[in-house]
Design a protein that fits this description.
This protein is an alpha+beta fold and about 150 residues long. The protein has one domain: Jelly Rolls. β4 and β5 form a beta hairpin. α3 packs across α4. It is globular and about 50 Å long. The chain starts with 8 loop residues before the first helix and ends in a 9-residue tail after the last helix. InterPro entries: cNMP-bd_dom, cNMP-bd_dom_sf, RmlC-like_jellyroll. It comes from Streptomyces vulcanius. Pfam families: cNMP_binding (PF00027). This is Crp/Fnr family transcriptional regulator.
């Protein structure tokens, strides 16, 4: 399941705000199979994928983690860094070798606090991503675990 309609930074931020944010980016390479984060962990960074694929998953008691979305080129990995208590709400794993831009969440939050217009743009972008991810997670979990026909009205 590949996300195709997730709001990208390129489409969501003005060129000036994108440029300012990218000054904080650090290029990283992450091996296949690496856990980027687990639910409940400290959300202190985020990534924008350059190449590769990341699966987002949710812990399901008594079962294997459910993959709720796969992310690829230009997509944001991680949104929990923006909202207190800054704890991951999902898990993420590199399913292929990954090249990405990595951002320090504290530095980005500080930049956003110092420039309210940038902060508003970043908040709007991440909020749109969050809404998309929650819809995807709900749909995927219903597909996986709801009884057949549970969504139909009879």
């Amino acid at each position: 399941m590949y996300a195709t309609s997730t709001p990208s930074m390129l489409r969501s931020l003005s060129a000036a705000h994108r440029e300012r944010l990218m000054r904080l980016a650090r290029e990283v390479s992450i091996p296949q199979g690496t856990r980027l984060f687990d639910e409940g962990g400290r959300a202190d960074r985020f990534w924008i994928i350059r190449t590769g694929r990341v699966d987002l998953d949710m812990h399901v008691p008594g079962r294997r983690a459910a993959v709720v979305e796969s992310l690829c080129h230009n997509e944001l990995v991680g949104w929990s860094w923006l909202f207190p208590p800054h704890a991951w709400q999902m898990g993420a794993e590199a399913m292929t070798p990954l090249r990405a831009y990595e951002f320090d969440a504290t530095a980005v939050r500080s930049m956003c606090q110092d420039d309210p217009a940038l902060g508003n743009d970043v908040s709007q972008w991440v909020g749109q991503v969050l809404a998309h991810r929650l819809r995807s997670a709900r749909t995927r979990l219903l597909d996986l675990y709801a009884p057949y026909g549970a969504g139909s009205l009879i």
